[in-house]
Amino acid sequence: MDVRLTGWKARNIRGGLRDVDINLGDTPCRWTLIQMPNGTGKTTTMALLRATLTGAEMSAKLVRELRADDNVETGSFEARLLVDGKSYRLQVELDFRDGSATYWTVQEKERGGGREEGRNLPAELQGLLKPTLTELFVFNGELATDIIDLDKTAAAQAIRALYGLDTLESLAKRVDTLVELEQRRAAAITSAKERKGITQLQNAYNEAKRTGERLDQQQKAASTRLIKLERERTRLQEEIQARMSEDAGIRAQIEVLDERQQDVDANAADLSLRALEALRRPAFVHPALLARLQHLGGKLYELKLPETISREFFNELATQERCVCGRPIGHDEREEIVSGAQRYLAQDQISVINQMKLALRESQGDPDELSTTVTSLQSQLDERRRIKAERERLASEKIAEGDEILKKLRDEVVTLSEEINTLSNTLERLTTKDPSRQRALRLSWETNHPLCEIELKARDTRLQTATRTRTFALQGEKLKAIVHATSRQALDILRERVRTSTNDKLARIFATEMIEVSRIGGGLELRTPGLGAKGGASEGQKLAIAYAFLTSLLADAPYRLPFIVDSPAVSLDTANRRQVGDLIPDFFNQMIMFVISSEREGFAEAFYDRSADVRYLTVTPLGGGTVDIAEGLEAFKSFHGREG
Amino acid sequence: MQLDPAISEAMDAVLAGHPDQSENFQRRFRNLVELVLSGNYQDADVRRVMELLSVSLEVDD
Known about the structure:
The structure holds 2 protein chains of 2 kinds. Chain A is α/β, with parallel strands linked by helices. Chain A has 3 domains: 3-172 and 488-638, P-loop containing nucleotide triphosphate hydrolases (Rossmann fold), CATH 3.40.50.300; 199-280 and 370-431, no CATH class; 282-363. Helix content of chain A is 57%, strand content 14%. Chain A has 22 helices and 15 strands. Chain A has helices at residues 42-54, 60-65, 123-128, 131-137, 143-148, 154-162, 165-169, 171-186, 195-245, 248-280, 287-302, 311-317, 331-341, 347-361, 369-400, 404-431, 435-440, 449-509, 539-555, 574-583, 600-608, 633-638, and strands at 3-11, 19-23, 31-35, 74-83, 86-95, 100-107, 114-117, 138-139, 516-520, 524-528, 532-533, 563-566, 591-595, 614-623, 626-631. In chain A, the strands form 3 sheets. In chain A, strands 2-1-4-5-6-7 form a 6-stranded antiparallel beta sheet. In chain A, strands 8-12-13-3-14-15 form a 6-stranded mixed beta sheet, sandwiched between helices. The longest helix of chain A has 61 residues, at 449-509. The radius of gyration of chain A is 49 Å and the shape is elongated. In chain A, 30% of the residues are buried. Chain B is an all-alpha fold. Chain B has one domain. In chain B, 59% of the residues lie in helices and 0% in strands. Chain B has helices at residues 5-16, 23-37, 43-51. Chains A and B meet through α3, α8, α9 and α18 of A and α1, α2 and α3 of B.
């Protein structure tokens, strides 16, 4: 990504910035030297360039301090950029009355351009233009000391910011948010998210599974035993029947009972069907229910529900020129009628409801049908009990006459029946799905198989959810660790790369007293080759080292940024100025330097030989906050400012 | 955006320390880093990479 500054414009700003427009052109020179005496707005321009680029919030106090004078109420500053050949104008509008600052972005392109509030730059650049990084290329002179200060972290921060390592580490926050979201979703099912909680859920699941297996075994054993006992009882009952039939008198009575039994069974089956049929037809259930249905039908009829106006009426109305009331129907009215038509029933829906209404009103049937059928069914069941009692009586008489074999057979049937009853009860307890029976028998998941299956499923869901949540959280932790390790590793590699490059430049700057960077920690650790660690450095040395570091950093960066600097050589001695002036310019695609006249010697002179691609501007104050901008080397050289 | 060689080198070194992770994860992770550095990534990109990581549930909290 290549970023160049093509100019800036100030309006009603203090110092010499009441009305300044510096235009560096669509293809700005590689080096621009702007000579401005102190007090003509160099520092303010630098601060406003930083603010405009970052879109940083400005306090009301700061905004008011930028006011040119009491006669102006608003002001503005605009920085013009070329980003990979595309033009952007970053503006800040200042209101000195309420101290507000509003940022705007103007993008000039054929389609989709225009002025938008806020910063609207390519995402990559937007992420890059943070204050930490902007201070590096719109260079804040105070950083020179901070970069070298080992107690500070300016050097490491600069590397992190420029290579996006901060952005990379911000991924950790995104991961945390995703994990939190997943845990919040899972919280409705289970609060377990750590290993201990999952172990508890696993144990609970295993417990339910074991219980299910036990109940299953019990059920199978009881069913097998029940089938066996029922077969045995049938066999014994057939043996009893055969034994009793040996007596001709009893046989005749049994045959009569069998016939009665057949009739009763047939009647009971028929009546059961009739009772079920009656239950499905409300008019046959009870007189009170029939009366209520007919009443409802009558009410719907009286109220004329549903309304007879159908959706079709409105749809048709919407196609007319005039409404039924005579008023014309325009576009808006037509839209409203069509939209409102959806609230009304369609013709086919009205028809269905009217059929229901009619059916309700004309409900007919014998309301005593159900009760009559149930009474008849009851009498057939009584008859069945009587037949059974008579069979018992016949057997008892035979036993009383001394038939020991029959007695033995009957005793065995009784014993078997008792066991069959017990087993049936056990099976019901194990297998019933009927909630009312489950409640009546006080069954739980530990004693009833269907309840156990429900419990097993619920515990499985909780376990799966917790496992999934925990897996996701562990994946998040692992991703964060890998990202952090990558960032740390990259920082180490970049530190070494920048250090080597910095030392190459320092070797050219400090020809006499060699200083080099032994390590980049938070700041730059210096040493004199052969003498070990260097305790202190002069202001000039610090600035030279900072330049060497910055140029190394920015020159190798993934982004090509302009380097804008205020008074770059003012604290350097003449020898170092020449070295810095000779060395630094080649590292940047674009360099803008605000200089004062005293910096011409040594530093600016280094550019005089670079006749091409250098632009010289000289800003002269005219009084009243206005300035004159002179173009060219002659004006630049001949200017005599207060510092000169 | 072309990744800076330093970032690529760092990723290579770190991923080499995780031989248990799948090729798919490694590829997606590199892609995610590129997206993050270009300031153009979504939650879904992060989630997809996370879900590709193999982890042991036996790890203590």
